[in-house]
Amino acid sequence: MRHFLIVGFALILAACGRTPLQEQQAYVFGTRVEVLVVSEDPEQGRKAIGAVLREFDRLHRAYHAWQPSELTTLNSAIFSGRPSEVSPELADFVREAQALSKQGDYLFDPGIGQLIKLWGFQADEFKAELPPPADIKAWLASQPSIADIAIDGQTISSRNHKVALDFGGYLKGVALDRAAAILRAQGINNALINIGGNVMALGSKQGKPWRVGIQHPRQPGPLATVTLADGEAIGTSGDYQRFFEVDGRRYAHLLDPRTGYPADHTQAVTVLIPAGPKAGTLSDAASKPIFIAGPDGWREMATKMQIGLVLRVDRSNRIFVTEALRQRLEFIGQPPEVTVVP
Fold this sequence. Notes:
Elements (H helix, E strand, L loop, with lengths): L4 E3 L3 E2 L8 E8 L2 E8 L3 H21 L7 H11 L3 E2 L2 H16 L9 H7 L13 H10 L6 E4 L2 E4 L12 H15 L5 E5 L2 E5 L7 E6 L6 E7 L4 E6 L4 E4 L2 E4 L2 E2 L4 E2 L3 E8 L5 H7 L1 H18 L4 E6 L4 E4 H4 L3 E2 L6 E4 L1
Parallel strand pairs: 1-10, 19-21
Antiparallel strand pairs: 1-2, 3-4, 4-8, 5-7, 6-7, 8-9, 9-12, 10-11, 11-20, 12-17, 13-14, 15-16, 17-18, 18-19
């Protein structure tokens, strides 16, 4: 039997009975998280997992955009037109998110919190109803963006009072990098961390590479599998988990800040990031602008963001994959028709 984790579906299918695995799951960042550790010392594994989950919980509480937190305090100050003194960590997050947003032509923009709220996607459960077109039009007219924010040391201000920061498309990736650092500091060199479909691999499972499955956006189970080398991360943005339907049309949480509406041309985008200090962060942040860029712009956007391993499924179920990633994929069942791009 094959054993792998499905990226984008957050499901551990199975684990070999004799493998010295410690596993724990939790619900953080509005999604299910799983940490698997390979350790001959069960107590060491449990302690390491506990440290990771505590850090996840801290990040979730400190930077929740819709429950009282340091981030909501900052958003309130921005709305009131006041500068706000923030922690060094939050200042660094805003700087990094600004840089990533600029690289992605602001198709990924954590400054669109008010648009997210208009659509109701800030909630764990959301109603199947469309926001009034006039409200979307008004939001577009104000053009809020994380680019409007100025940072002076630890003081943050905004020239646009309509900016509301939401790190939902960024913080899971940051947490992956934090988890990897914590595990390694505690002597854990073989682990798999999954935060709602963003996955990072450390080392291997008994000498064999970790294998993960890429969720099919319209069918149960994986579309394909891929092995991850030490320190690699993979992330998927898809329209199949956080969405609602009105009159038979799907409206997903991946909002295009140019139109104010969900991008409907793409079902899923998966990116695989080589090992590096920010591999986790990129696995989360890079898939969004590539997804939103759509059929005419996704490949150019991937190149601009220096992401070479990409898989895209469009709304007509057509599959596009970069040559570098195609060489590593193993499709499940009868191989589908795939367009390979340089």
